[in-house]
Design a protein that fits this description.
It is a single chain. By secondary structure, the protein is an all-beta fold. The protein has no helices and twelve strands. The chain folds into two domains: 9-62, no CATH class; 63-166, Sandwich (Jelly Rolls), CATH 2.60.120.380.
Amino acid sequence: MLIPATAPRAVYYIGVYAYISCSFNLQAIEYSSCPSGCSGNGQCDQNSHTCTCNVNFGGSDCSQRNMSLIPDVTQSGEITFDEKIFYYFDISVANSVVDVRLTSGSYVDLLVKKGNFPSLTDFDYSNISSDPNINTINIPFISAGRWYAGLFGFLPTDYNITLSVTGKLSFHLFFFCLS
């Protein structure tokens, strides 16, 4: 028996009637047409089979923590072994200069990518520092759009992350003629 996703939330009963003595197994399986049932962090659109993630979550199955990174506001948190935490920030003025600074008590990689979550193998900017406690990515001439900063934990630790955005860069060229 299949109960459609549009059915009201309720208690359903299944009856079994047999004409002769027999044994049987009943199995109830909860099924979602969305990836991982939106991980409990979003709403599933049964028609498109896609998740609309709750605030602070992202990814196709809403399993990734995804928080807003506000310029000049340090955000703190904890990251565990093999955990990924994502922050996003929007750049409205192209050619701005962006610094993303991470300080932590242990080994955390910081990667940045435009338009999507970075991974350890797919990113636009990284700074794997020899000092595991300080990690800064400087992006001059950044293009407008939504950017994502990903933290990848290798040991459990506390961290602080700060975004700095300055205006457009301009250059003045001076030419001197020596005679």
